[in-house]
Amino acid sequence: MSPLSVDRAPSRDRSAYLAMIPQLEQQGFLRLPANPVLRQAVDCAFAQASGFFARPAEEKLRYSHPEWVEGYRELGPEYSQVPERPDLTESFSAWNHNRVHPELDAWRDGCLLHGALRDAADLLADVVRDLFAAMRDYFAPGAPDLRFFGATYTQLNHYEPARHRRKLLQDPHEDGHLVTLVTSNAPGLELQVGGAFVPANVSPDHFVVMPGSLLSLMTGYRVKPGYHQVRNSRRTDPRLSMMFFVNPEIDQQLAPWIENDSNKGIDIIARANAAPKQFGYPSLKDILSGHADTPLESPYLANAAQ
Ligand SMILES: [Fe+2]
């Protein structure tokens, strides 16, 4: 079986997910409790991340494969609004698609964080499969399954709030994915609710589901994009967050579940392909084909070097 064709037993109880969709539509986000297995995977990823990010820079950079956007990235290339204000975090990504590269097996012993993120991704994919099936049944019964696994990735962010003077470690933005599932070990994430930013109060026992711009296109904007930001707590302890960024696989026909004036004629796959460029990355197609060879530019680091 190819590492990408993950075919798992269907859901435990999809009706529970179906009951949450009106809440997602009205409230703009959802909280999904982590079952004990997922909770253990989150704890393991955070424990491995604490050790990994504490290593010297040259050691961390050994686990970085920029052409595949896999592994470690220094603070700098990724931003939320403008390149001059990067997200003030180091990060580590594990793309499901990159499981096809046996070269990455060499990371197994030296970087347990990588394997921990892959394990978490498998569990989170089960959750998202149920969530999307529920959304489909709610908005467009009978529509085909939305395939996402091969274009989706897991990311661990490591913030050191007290080192930065900015009030916001990440500027307000909506994600360019279908949904983001996020958890964290410390305060900072804020969600826009009724026009004001409020603390997300997320902890490792659950994930917050934040709709991205592609989900709004899928639902004719019945589900609004979830604006969010990360506030600087000024704490000296590192803040860790784990995100499951869910993209549609780009080799599928993707008709919106609900079509109206807001999304008429819009090619959602084309939007998914272009979305990463908005945040300092190559296109999704280039990432998935392993040709993300445009150097990730970092005006922040260039300025800092001057
Ligand atoms: Fe975000």
Q: Could you list some keywords that capture this structure?
A:
single chain, 306 residues, alpha+beta, Jelly Rolls, eight-stranded antiparallel β-sheet, four-stranded antiparallel β-sheet, 9 helices, 29% helix, disordered N terminus, disordered C terminus, binds fe (ii) ion
Short description:
The protein has helices at residues 14-18, 21-27, 36-53, 57-61, 112-139, 213-218, 268-274, 284-288, 299-305; strands at 30-33, 64-65, 70-73, 90-95, 153-159, 168-173, 179-184, 189-193, 196-199, 206-211, 228-231, 239-246. With 306 residues, the chain is of the alpha+beta class. The chain has an eight-stranded antiparallel sheet. Strands 6-11-8-9 form a four-stranded antiparallel sheet, with no helix packed on it.
Number of domains: 1
Given as residue ranges, the uncertain stretches (5+ residues, pLDDT < 50) are 1-10, 297-306
**Beta strand %:** 15-25%
End-to-end C-alpha gap: 51 Å
The CATH architecture can be given as: Sandwich
* H/E series: HHEHHEEEHEEEEEEHEEHHH
Q: Helix/strand-derived class?
A: alpha+beta
